[in-house]
Design goal:
single chain; alpha/beta; ten-stranded mixed sheet; 21% strand; disordered N terminus
Length: 721
Amino acid sequence: MTQADFLKHPPPAGQTLESGTPTGPARFFNRELSWLSFNWRVLDEARNARVPLLERLRFLAISATNLDEFYTVRVAGLRELEREGSTTPSHDGRTPGQQLELINADARRLMGAQQMVWNGLRQEMAEEGIVILTRDRITDEDAGFLRSYFLDQVLPVLSPLAIDPAHPFPFIPNAGFSLALELTRGSDGRRMQALLPIPGQLSRFIRLPHSTRFLPLEDLLLMNIGRLFPGYRNTGHCAFRVLRDSDLEVEEEAEDLVREFETALKRRRRGSVVRLKITEGAPENLRRIIMDELHASPEEVVEASGLLGVADLKELVLDERRDLQWPTFTPRVPERVQDHNGDMFAAIRQKDMLLHHPYETFDMVVRYLTQAARDPNVLAIKQTLYRTSRESPIVEALCEAAEAGKSVTALVELRARFDEAANIRQSRRLERSGAHVVYGFVNYKTHAKISTVVRREGDALVTYTHYGTGNYHPITARIYTDLSLFTCDPALGRDATKVFNFLSGYVQPEGLENLSISPIGMKDRLIEMIGREAELARAGRPGAIWAKMNSLIEPDVIDALYAASQAGVQIDLVIRGICGIRPGIAGLSENIRVKSIIGRFLEHSRIVCFGAGHGLPSRKARVFFSSADWMGRNLNRRVETQVECMNETVKAQIVSQIMAANMADEAQSWILQPDGRYLRHLPADRDDLFNCHRFFMENPSLSGRGRAGAGDVPALTHSSD
């Protein structure tokens, strides 16, 4: 596979670089177009022949799910601004209307590319025996099974609806998928229009017995029109799928935040339509009725020439076809925890321990809380919860601790997008167990990841603290790369306690020792540290910054990075998704390089390393990890934490292992160009490209080694001092 294979799509619309050094708004990339560029990179993994076939199918489904969420939140917000007549520009100078025009064009190209990728994958899957059938390829034996399946498993949950003055057009919820039909009665030629909403609880692809052959559900329905509408025949049909505005608005003065969110969640299902995807060549009468009844404007309608609901393809990632998926990987249990027979507190007491998930198992976080719940010497637990799994072992441990009489405080963030209902359920469960549940602030989301356990040891109380970059979610922790720091350092324990007091009692923290938080001080601290590196470079010392995060768009931080680049600081950034900074431009950012890593695992950790005048890597670097991306929402409108690492082994692990491997990665890295394009080179004759995910799977973390530090753990770079 060559580089050209990944340049099928044009440069991001509106992102191209004019001649000269950009000034004013032109110095930023547009946030929304940058996100679309990220989703192109996700889609391109679906046509990367180095990725196993069913993993490529998974990437295709992810790209569709991502795009749906983008429309229901980001596009919906821009549409609302445009309808209100807003012309307030984004940081790159574009009005909401101008952004929508560019988004619409690029997203349509993306959806067309998704269909092309699916057509190719479908053929490859057929060669492997995974066949997606059409109605004309059904055998008599298949027909018998499908008839029974329809009658037993599908018909009882369907609600076929005529469309006429006595049967008004039904409400179609967000992500609702339906068939629209033109029917003719055989006896007298009477015509009827009808709608068949397809319940989301039904499998989209029906598996035929003793095979890996599948029939799409909509084909099964069309085969059974005579059973749904006896006496009628199908003379025209189309399928359509609706996306609605899914952003939540909550009254700032709400007296009961939980009830207010429950009401807002009901409103979400009925949000205005932001995208209507309909089968290409739909009968004009049906198309007109659907658009009129859903109040969809022409620019909100997308005609699809292939499969609707591409996200549903995830159903076809078959568990039994492991040969077409990534090789099985079992996360490691740190040696030091094994040395202490699984006793988390003993392992933490020995020395701070930084785990790199998913390479080191997230089960250690669960074990930490489960052990705390059952330890008679533990007096209190405090925990933030932003997202977690449905049957969460974290929540289970907190409930067990509360029921055992321990003091348990849980900060549950109700506004974790698309997890609001789940978090309400978890908060109710925690309250029933006797835990004290708080919801933080109305104006700020709480995105910080902190857990503290207070344990009596002799005559003293010792605070054990966990700081993370990712959610307390055991399922996503299997594929998200994140950091977990376990410590009983008194300073970090005091800092955590102050943050919890801030969340529960609005007591603004003072005198934080190893911690900075947003919205109080973190942004200023970052800009100060970037400026300090610039001062060192101007004084002739080697200035360097390494940073890794999901998104970078905060304009003040970007301007500070530009200034540091102009002072001679070498800046290397690993930004997985949205990036507003233009790298490699003479006079502005010639010392800035940006890459995006897209691969087997989803890069999620947030790290920044400052060379402190010694260059990188170095034991003298100042090293931080955080729950926050460098976005306005994280630095100005959320409660986030940024921890400075003081333990030398932890610092070496981050600089010489984690960050060095990210910088060295070739196999999964896309390099951002000054004009907004991302380029990747995958020479067909090389199978030895360095892959940071493979490196992390094969090499344990430095700080998780046993008490004797047995064996050398590879580090990609070594300090010279």
